[in-house]
Design a protein that fits this description.
about 300 residues; 7 strands; about 45% helix; seven-stranded antiparallel beta sheet; alpha+beta
Length: about 300
């Protein structure tokens, strides 16, 4: 029988447990860089090592400056871009189901020296333990090196956990989302980009796909819809129909196509639906519009 001589073991409570790492990156962004945006069911930490970067987190838009970090919570649509400035970032994606980590979401952290040291240690251990390049943007799986030093994976795990604990313990957080200048710039870009996407599908049967637009632009659907309506006064669907009606008016004025052919070319489900939408927007049926053009030509 094992003898403890009166000693009693103290169980160690571990409120933060990182169960795995997906990727560890270090990127150097040029001017006007833009990532297409993504979401996934695990956490992502973005740390700006130098310069300034624009961050999108669902419907929040803000800038991260040197030494600042943000944690994207699972399933949050996120994006990163730069303007007229270079930027470097360290990005770590990881699994952590601990409830204690939830306060990290929706906040910006300024790293202290200890936390920067931990981050540097994580990146160093990844470099010597895995074969992947740190700037491989579409990396899906890390490949362990055949001569990886003993305990590298555990050091990475422990350093991430220490980093999370330090942030939760020591930091007052700053919320600076929806910076006015950033939002205004992004709103203009959103309207321009949505217009280009809609124009590219104008002569097809494709309907407005907000999910696809969201992923192409790297913003949430709710944010895109709100900013687009604010800038144009129209919903995206209304705007798209207006574009189709304007195109239909041009085609009708050419007298080269039948009403049915135009309705089909512009992706309307039926001639009846096309005629109804046309009259709603112009107060005339397509036939009445053609006749009005003929009358104008006589004059």
């Amino acid at each position: 029988m094992e003898q403890n001589n009166g000693y009693i073991k103290t169980e160690l409570n571990c409120p933060i447990k990182v169960s795995g790492v997906y990727t560890v990156h270090y990127f150097k962004y040029g001017r006007n860089f833009r990532f297409k945006g993504e979401s996934h069911d695990f956490w992502e930490m973005v740390f700006i090592d130098s310069g300034t970067a624009n961050i999108v987190a669902d419907d929040k838009v803000f800038k991260l400056s040197q030494g600042e970090a943000y944690f994207h919570k699972p399933n949050e649509l996120h994006n990163i871009s730069t303007d007229e400035e270079f930027a470097n970032s360290a990005i770590i994606t990881f699994d952590c189901n601990s409830r204690a980590i939830k306060p990290l979401a929706d906040k910006i952290f300024k790293f202290n020296d200890f936390e920067k040291t931990l981050l540097n240690k994580i990146i160093h251990e990844v470099k010597i333990s895995y074969n992947d390049k740190l700037n491989e943007i579409y990396l899906k799986k890390m490949t362990k090196s055949s001569d990886a030093p003993f305990g590298g994976s555990q050091i990475i795990k422990n350093c991430i956990e220490l980093l999370l604990i330090s942030l939760l313990r020591n930091h007052d957080t700053t919320e600076k989302f929806n910076d006015v200048n950033s939002v205004n710039v992004n709103s203009d870009k959103i309207v321009e980009s949505v217009h280009q996407i809609l124009s590219s599908t104008l002569n097809s049967a494709s309907s407005v796909n907000l999910t696809e637009i969201s992923y192409k632009l790297g913003f949430s659907k709710s944010y895109i819809k709100a900013q687009f309506k604010k800038k144009t006064g129209y919903s995206i669907i209304q705007y798209f129909i207006n574009m189709k009606i304007d195109k239909a008016k041009k085609l009708l004025s050419q007298h080269k196509f039948t009403i049915s052919e135009i309705a089909d070319a512009l992706g309307f489900s039926s001639v009846y639906y096309f005629s109804r939408q046309f009259k709603l927007h112009t107060d005339m049926s397509p036939t009445e519009y053609i006749n009005s053009i003929k009358a104008d030509n006589v004059l």
